[in-house]
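Format notes (please read before filing issues)

Several people have asked whether sequences and structure tokens are stored in separate files. They are not. Every record keeps both together, in the order shown below: the sequence lines, then the token lines. Line labels are part of the format and must not be stripped during preprocessing.
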Amino acid sequence: MGKPQIRSTLALGALAILVAAGVPASAKVEGDTIVLGAAVSLTGKYSTNGKNTQDGYELAVARVNEKGGVQVGDKTYKLKVVYYDDESTPARAAQLAERLINQDGVKFLLGPYSSGLTKAIAPVTEKYKIPMVEGNGASLSLFKEGYRYLFATLSTTEFYLKEAVNLAAMTAQAAGRDPAELKVAMAFENDPFSQDIRAGVTEDAERWGMKVVVDDKLPPELNDMAATLTKIKAVKPDLLLVSGHTKGATLAVRQTAEMRVEVPMIAITHCDSAQVAETLGSAAEYFLCASQWDRSLSYRDDWFGSAEEYAQLFEATYDYSPPYQAAESTAAVLVFVDALQRAGSFDTEEVRDAIAATDMQTFYGNIKFDETGKNIAKPMVLYQVQDGQYKVVAPTDWASAKLIHPRRLPE
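Then the structure lines:
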């Protein structure tokens, strides 16, 4: 299969694309094209994952258009996305959401990257009653505000590293140990996403009776974990949990190797988007990695086929393997496509209600929203880096490899 013809519509910094001349600001379509809008991080600290997000959106748009477009009522429409660079800054993201809605006349928004930026935009879309489907704002706190127009394709934060705690407990039991004997160290960035993950793993650690021996908050501008890792070396935990987005994943892998930090099990977020296995070699071996999605899973849809077929198309288009941030972004576009077709209308309330009633399977997983807008139909998976490859080791129903434990330091 050849590369789809993807037309990137972005410009760094300011205006990415204007609606066509003469089209009123309230327009929902330009001729035969449905316009979606997105503020994404093309520069700043989230630029890597911002690119993943945009690539996921663009692949979906290209694929939907290639397969005939979106049937709304008795007419078929193409898709396009208006992009702005939010510069990885919440205030800028909120400002750009206002511009998309009020100046560009966009009535359907795709989310930014990160919980913090999604949290900045959600009050804006709520104010104007504009549906937003997002795949990269996982913070549980987003879904406790009573928002009616916010919907997320991904599993929420409290589930990200819970599986690692449970895996540590079950591994201990299999070895004849009481999970309550296990010591846990935690290092989480002080942002909404990572602190919600902390709340989830703390709950599970308490349930198993585990003792938390290190509980550090990492600064948002994270450049060094040496102080935290020095403490961890001293207390010798059984399990280390880290969340600090892409930079945090890279630091955790590199500095645990450099400082010879011996912990039997280490689980982190953002392994695949940080490309730790690809770029850090033996230092990444045996790390556990939380993921929303894997190409080996058995999900399918009519747009991309299987998860593996999606991954192959993504690689052929962008020359890198799709991290879950891209896959969940693609799924967000597919939710809009499905809802628009079922609504048979561009009315924002009708489309919003159709999104709320979503019950579908995509290559990325099952999608069904609860009353708060969370996807309640898809589990997380846990990778382990083995021989430079990401292998699913949990949940066991999805496992493609057995857990290697204890983790061994690189030679």
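For reference, the curators noted about this record: The mean pLDDT is 91. The radius of gyration is 21 Å.
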